[in-house]
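Exercise 3.2. Students should predict the tertiary structure of the chain below and write it as structure tokens, then compare their answer with the key that follows.

Predict this chain's 3D structure.
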Amino acid sequence: MNDITQEDIDLAKYIYTILISQPTILMSWGYTSPTVIKQGLRFSVSGFLLKGTVEVTYNAGSDLFDLTFYNEDSSVRNTLEGIYFDELVNVIDDQVEVGRVENYNERVKEEYNILSNEV
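Answer key:
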């Protein structure tokens, strides 16, 4: 199990509690396959901006979180360091789902076959 400790498991659970505090945003990422890793949590996403994997790791030295975003081919797309716990969901969301996607509402409707109430 790659030397995963109880501390790693507890830390992954803590990270998950932060993410699930905003369940609508978490689910918009297509969040799946959570896995405990050394000092953190890895999970798959399928957002408009990123389809791949996100790793959230705790940096004990700074008492903050570091994020690594991977494309579907496992290449590193982006790394962000020094993220406060209360910014974690929004920072991940900016990289996975929201960001600067043009016509976001229209793309959501199209992706999920949502019919508009507009006539």
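Discussion points: The chain has one domain: 6-111. The first strand starts at residue 32 and ends at 37.
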